[in-house]
Amino acid sequence: MKLFYASPREIEMAEALEQGSPFEWADLDEEADCTCGGWGILRGMHQKREEAIANGHHYLYLDHAYIGRHEHFRATWNEHHYLGLGSPDHHLRPEPWRQTGTHILITTQSPAWYAMHGSTEREWVLNKVKRIGEYSDRPIKVRPKNAPYPIAEDLKDCWALVTFESNTVVDAILAGVPAFCDGGAGLMVASSNISHIELPFYPGDEHIMKWLGGLLENQWTRKQMASGEAWEKLSSRLNTLN
After folding, report:
1. Which residues pair with 60 in a beta bridge?
2. CA 165 to CA 81: how far, in whole Å?
């Protein structure tokens, strides 16, 4: 198994995974001719994922966690996001649904993420602002990726959050704010239909807890990766794919 790595930011995470799994370090110029894995989409990593899948192999996608960013890291087979449910028995306790609010919050993602989907940040934001304006006269705030202040500030008095595939959906749901998104794990608890911006989707408590449980079950600490605990669960899921 090959572990491709092009980013120096989370080198300790990659080393932990290599220690606790059959993955072995591989250079980017090597062929994705077996089960592979890698971090993010930059520096050729998106192409490696596409290459592995096109060659008929599975690919373990690694990225920042849904919850507990920097301490935990998410890992999903073949997809950028985990698209399933888990156990509702966990420590997270979302706020009750907020059915009041003044503004609509748009959160953006990296330019590379939009480019991967054939768009740009500006193009996507302008399109969403236009679409929202067709169905609502509420003021719109745009929060850039990596804004230098907590998202909780923008979620105050927020009617709904709108994003592409950002993990900010998790922040919104935990704060009791309904969300709209185009894809990703958020689609299990959010609407993709902007025409319903004034009639948001409010999933039931049990579904929300199972959704959050699924996210928690697909992220691990460096220690869990190095010990093999993460690989035990990941390999079990891999076996169901083969």
Report:
1. 37, 77
2. 9
CATH code where residue 115 lies: 3.40.50
Token representation of residue 32: 């994705």
Q: List, for residues 213-227, the tens digit of each pLDDT value.
A: 999 999 999 999 999
Identify the three-state secondary structure at position 91: coil
Sheet holding 103-107, edge to edge: 140-143, 103-107, 158-163, 179-181
Q: Are residues 232 and 210 in the same domain?
A: no
Q: Are residues 117 and 207 in the same domain?
A: yes
* Helix ranges, the chain (H): 11-19, 45-54, 111-116, 121-135, 151-155, 168-174, 205-216, 222-227, 229-241
Question: Based on the domain organization, do 6 and 77 belong to the same domain?
Answer: yes
- 120-167 tens-digit pLDDT: 999 999 999 999 999 999 999 999 999 999 999 999 999 999 999 999
**What is the tens place of the pLDDT at every residue in 56-67?**
999 999 999 999
Alpha carbon separation from 14 to 30, 111, 140, 237 (Å, rounded): 17, 24, 39, 20
Q: Which domain holds residue 47?
A: 2-82+219-241
Comparing CA positions, the residue from 117, 100, 89 lying closest to residue 209 is 89
Total residue count of the chain as it appears in this document: 242
